């Protein structure tokens, strides 16, 4: 895509986050969508493109009263919304639609109107992973990590430090689920989930949603909010089976998606003022920093330990508190995007002063997929 | 509670049939000689459909693992390993390491392993144990 040809003109999360037992999945989608429409000064009648994951775009369009000329139901896990942004940008530039609504809603904690976790026993995962006792992300996403720690010379303390510093960011965010400070010892002494992962190295499970509205940049100044421009995007997929990923120390999907987005934007990591890396677990920011080119392999843990990504550091990372402390409904990518947009608007609770370029990097499944969006606030 | 078991498909039946007779069956390409896993009727490296099934050595090393402290109901009550092993022939596969304590001390990366099979009704699952144990 041409950098700065598309802008985000509406962005909002659900009115509440955390435990929302009185709302179903589709209700959370709608609450976020209505908030984003209000943010953009639009109604559903102004929307002609719909993208979503977890629900069908048909269900969302009908529920909200939208008659789209473009729909995208790409569902590759938690980074689906990054891919929706990318696909929407292409669709708007191609003239398939003018104003796109991307929605997310998930009753991750309360499980109201949502399906369960399971794989058909005849699928490849069902045959070659499920019989060995994998349950859910804590026993799947974590599988490559022992190899990664050994290859890089990283330690359990390095994983714990990721969680500790993200809690520092969460403390600055009134909407964060967990705000109390924690230490490396607190993390290492929290209940063992799947060795070497303790509870505080794993994301939250909460309810919530979010929505974005995109249109062409030449219309962006007609909206009430400060436009946030899209500079570049990337996406890729690798394998549905974490046991079959090409390299346990690096995500191919991360590398391909990140490279594409940076090339499209014509920037390098040194140009980035603010970074979101989807952190379902504490190892993901380490992989992300390396695979996106912010750190050389083996230097990410030291980079975090030296407080470069902490409040006051040179590269503010996961400033909402991340999936580890802010919220995580299941498909967290939407909340990473929302924080990037807030940072570019200059309204984030833990605002990175003067930030002009923000990167939102998502993962889907267990290193199965990836999407990257680079935002800027100068037209 | 009954163990969660695979449901073989036509493309994977040979693998599960092999497990039942104590044979770890891999596939390899007769064009480029690449061994691969999981089973499929073509070579993922070059796309050729000229592939053959052969019995693997059963030798492997421990590539990565977790020790699940919250086992699924069908996996019993005690913490257990969920591992990925690197087969001597090249491919990696998920399994459980058996025949040793399920502890970080006993489970050392790169330790030599060998396949062993356990039958659950109509299915036998391939597990790995410390070599020579
Ligand atoms: Zn071949």
Kindly list the characteristics that best describe this protein:
heterodimer; A: alpha/beta; Peroxisomal Thiolase, Chain A, domain 1; 9-stranded mixed beta sheet; two-stranded antiparallel ribbon; 13 helices; 32% helix; B: 133 residues; mainly beta; 5-stranded antiparallel beta sheet; 3-stranded antiparallel beta sheet; binds zinc ion
Detail the topology: elements first, then pairings.
The complex is a heterodimer of chains A (379) and B (133).
Chain A: E1 6-13, H1 25-40, E2 49-52, H2 57-64, E3 70-72, H3 80-94, E4 99-107, H4 124-128, H5 137-140, H6 145-152, H7 156-170, H8 184-189, E5 192-195, E6 197-198, E7 207-216, E8 228-237, H9 252-265, E9 274-277, H10 284-291, H11 300-305, H12 322-325, H13 333-345, E10 357-364, E11 369-376
Parallel strand pairs in A: 2-3, 2-4, 9-10
Antiparallel strand pairs in A: 1-7, 1-8, 4-7, 5-6, 8-11, 10-11
Helix pairs in contact in A: 1-2
Chain B: H1 13-20, E1 25-29, E2 35-36, E3 51-55, E4 59-68, E5 80-87, E6 92-95, E7 112-120, E8 123-130
Antiparallel strand pairs in B: 1-2, 1-3, 4-5, 4-7, 5-6, 7-8
Bound molecules: zinc ion.
Zinc ion binds at residues 29, 31-32, 34, 43, 45-46, 48 of chain B.
Describe the structure.
The complex is a heterodimer of chains A (379) and B (133). By secondary structure, chain A is an alpha/beta fold. Chain A has a single domain, classed as Thiolase/Chalcone synthase (Peroxisomal Thiolase, Chain A, domain 1, 3-Layer(aba) Sandwich). Chain A is 32% helix and 18% strand. A 9-stranded mixed β-sheet of chain A has the order 3-2-4-7-1-8-11-10-9, sandwiched between helices. Chain A has a two-stranded antiparallel ribbon with strand order 5-6. In chain A, β10 and β11 form a beta hairpin. The radius of gyration of chain A is 19 Å and the shape is globular. The model of chain A has no long low-confidence stretch (mean pLDDT 96). With 133 residues, chain B is mainly β. Chain B has one domain. Chain B has a 5-stranded antiparallel β-sheet with strand order 6-5-4-7-8, with helices on one face. In chain B, strands 2-1-3 form a 3-stranded antiparallel β-sheet. The two termini of chain B are 29 Å apart. The mean pLDDT of chain B is 96. Chains A and B meet through α4, α6 and β5 of A and β4, β5 and β6 of B. Bound molecules: zinc ion. The site of zinc ion (ZN) has 8 residues of chain B, from loops.
């Amino acid at each position: 895509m041409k950098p700065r040809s598309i802008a985000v003109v509406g962005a909002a999360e659900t009115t509440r986050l955390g435990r929302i037992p009185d709302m179903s999945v589709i209700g959370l989608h709608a609450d976020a969508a209505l908030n984003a429409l209000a943010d953009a000064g639009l109604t559903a009648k102004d929307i002609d493109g719909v993208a979503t994951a977890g629900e069908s775009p048909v269900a969302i369009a009908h529920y909200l009263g939208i008659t789209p000329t473009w729909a995208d139901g790409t569902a590759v896990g938690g980074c689906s919304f990054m891919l929706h942004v990318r696909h929407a940008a292409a669709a708007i530039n191609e003239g398939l639609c003018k104003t796109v609504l991307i929605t997310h809603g998930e009753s991750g904690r309360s499980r109201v109107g949502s399906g369960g976790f399971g794989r058909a026993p005849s699928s490849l995962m069902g045959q070659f992973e499920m019989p060995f006792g994998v349950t859910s992300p804590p026993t799947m996403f974590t599988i490559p990590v022992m190899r990664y720690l050994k290859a890089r010379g990283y330690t359990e303390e390095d994983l714990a430090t990721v969680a500790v510093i993200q809690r520092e960011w969460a403390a600055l965010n009134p909407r964060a689920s967990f705000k109390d400070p924690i230490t490396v010892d607190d993390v290492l002494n929290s209940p063992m989930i799947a060795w070497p992962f303790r509870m505080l190295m794993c994301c939250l499970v909460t309810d919530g949603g979010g929505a974005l509205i995109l249109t062409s940049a030449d219309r962006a100044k007609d909206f009430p909010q400060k436009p946030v421009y899209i500079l570049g995007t990337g996406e890729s997929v690798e394998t549905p089976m974490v046991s079959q990923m090409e390299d346990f120390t690096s995500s191919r999907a991360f590398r391909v998606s990140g490279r594409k987005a940076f090339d499209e934007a014509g920037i390098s990591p040194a140009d980035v003022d603010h970074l979101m890396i989807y952190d379902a677990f504490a190892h993901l920011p380490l992989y992300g920093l390396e695979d996106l080119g912010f750190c050389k392999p083996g230097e990410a843990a030291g980079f975090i330990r030296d407080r470069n990504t902490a409040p006051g550091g040179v590269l503010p990372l996961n400033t909402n508190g991340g999936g580890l402390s802010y919220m995580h409904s299941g498909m967290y990518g939407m909340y990473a995007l929302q924080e990037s947009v807030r940072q570019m608007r200059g309204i984030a609770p833990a605002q990175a002063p003067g930030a002009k370029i923000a990167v939102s990097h998502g993962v889907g499944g267990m290193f199965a997929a990836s999407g990257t969006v680079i935002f800027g606030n100068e037209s | 509670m009954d163990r969660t078991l695979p449901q073989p498909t036509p493309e994977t039946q040979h693998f599960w049939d092999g497990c039942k007779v104590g044979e770890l069956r891999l596939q390899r390409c007769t064009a480029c000689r690449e061994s691969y896993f999981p089973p499929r009727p073509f070579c993922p490296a070059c796309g050729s459909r000229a592939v053959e099934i052969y019995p693997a050595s059963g030798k492997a090393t421990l590539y990565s693992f977790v020790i699940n402290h919250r086992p699924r109901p069908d996996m019993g009550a005690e913490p257990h390993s969920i591992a990925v092993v690197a087969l001597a022939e090249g491919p990696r596969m998920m399994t459980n390491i058996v025949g040793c304590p399920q502890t970080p001390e006993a489970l050392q990366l790169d330790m030599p392993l060998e396949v062993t099979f356990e039958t659950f009704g109509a299915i036998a699952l391939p597990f790995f144990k410390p070599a020579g144990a």
